[in-house]
Design brief:
mainly alpha; two-stranded antiparallel ribbon; MFS transporter; MFS_dom; transport; transmembrane helix; MFS_trans_sf
Amino acid sequence: MSSSSTTTEPTEPTEPTEPTEPQSHARLTHGQVITVLSGLMLGMFLAALDQTVVSSALRTIADDLHGLTAQAWVTTAYLVTGTIVTPLYGKLSDIYGRRPVYLTAIVLFTFGSLLCGFATSIHQLAAFRAVQGLGGGGLMSLAMTIIADITSPRERGRYQGYITAVFAGSSVVGPLVGGVFAGRATLLGLDGWRWIFLVNIPLAALAIVVILRVLHVPHQPVRHRLDYGGALTLAVGIVPLLIVAEQGRSWGWGSPRALVMYAVGVVGLVSFVLLERRMADAALLPVKLFRIRAFRLGTVLHFTVGITMFGAMTTLPLYLQLAKGMSPMKAGLATLPTMAANVAVTLVVGRLMSRTGRFKVHLVAGVGSLTVSMLVFATLRDDSPLWYVAIGMVFMGAGLGAAMQTITTLAQSEVPGRDMGAATASVNFFRSNGGTVGAAAFLSILFSLAGSRIGERLAVASQDASFRRLAGEPANAEALKGVLRPDGGVNLEDSAFLRHLDPGVAQPFLEGYVSALRVVFLTGAAVGLIAFMIAAWRVPNTQLSAD
């Protein structure tokens, strides 16, 4: 790199040639990197906040739009489009430059937010969330790519850590904001929940202004053909599998609809792999990248850690809300130890990586800490004190703070600069898919086991005359109406009845739920252990270049 610190964009040639390597970017000072980073963090905060805000208020939204049974599509639609376009953004940014493509992602996200704010049905909202996903899919991966563009390999972890910290912060802020808006019947003449989407508009406007002012990253055009066939076959392969991951629990994992989805997904993925091999360098996910050991290990670790991370982030709030009776907003506040540990460790690890150039020790420690957190959660009881839960949260936050940035650094460490956009997008693609698998699998395990375990505890409790008498009282009997099935089963579609039960009657339900959650967290620990062994025994202890 040259010693110049200019940040102006060079004039693009009218006939770009395909270089073996892009020209070196001008080295930016720490202050200039932080200025660029401020714009990136605003854009990424939009996408990260939106997901957590919507999840905390989804039940209220579905009730208002009379679509309780279809609410999962609101999440699935965003996830499907966001996942599919992620690798496409990487390729487009390699061709046209980071800034215009990043601005396009924000504009699409904002337009989708505006549409969502005025949706009149649950299916319309799902369609508009798909538009949001078209923009949201590029915000995280492009931010990581731009940081890789303007920093040396040794410095990347330090700055990417800030972005990881933003994601952690949104996981706490999101439920709070969602709870505030969803708790308001109306605000300025509109339903309170609609502001969950409309608040994105001023935030996006601010992000656009900041990016236009500060994001001037030199760009060497790279000639790529757009892999439309790859995008199509990837959609055919991924969309059915994401849908069945979200809907399989209600459909039945072996139902005819699920089997059709499996078959279509497999055909699509096989077609995608065959086509990508033929497309070579023009491929949406270039096969040559998987010949790079560091990139291959990074994608595997992102997928496995994504399973544990998103699975835990989905099920831990359920423990706080079910076993501890917290509202979504209070549950968000209770996860502050996760955010605090995440931010602190992210910043410390980033600085250590910048100073020493070593990242394996932090990667191994981070994945190990995340696995320990799953083991702590696997020992929870319905009456566990919050300080004990907080111990697990600290381990989880510290683990994610150390692991996520170092895995990204690992994946990028040996990738040529001209493929950085496609590589970073690919890494985020695998993390997103790992998260989908983790959330779906963990919830499936939870609800598959909870019914039988609650039934067992109810059968034991019913032998006690005092329990039968308490359960027969009018208020408790009314709350249990529709919950206890004639065949002895339990209807777990809605847990709101627990709030209206006497604690003595609710106890078997809480014990059954927590018993099932312990199995879920043990599963997370097993996946975390696999990731730990890969990190400890397969990742090389290399030193990052300072250039």
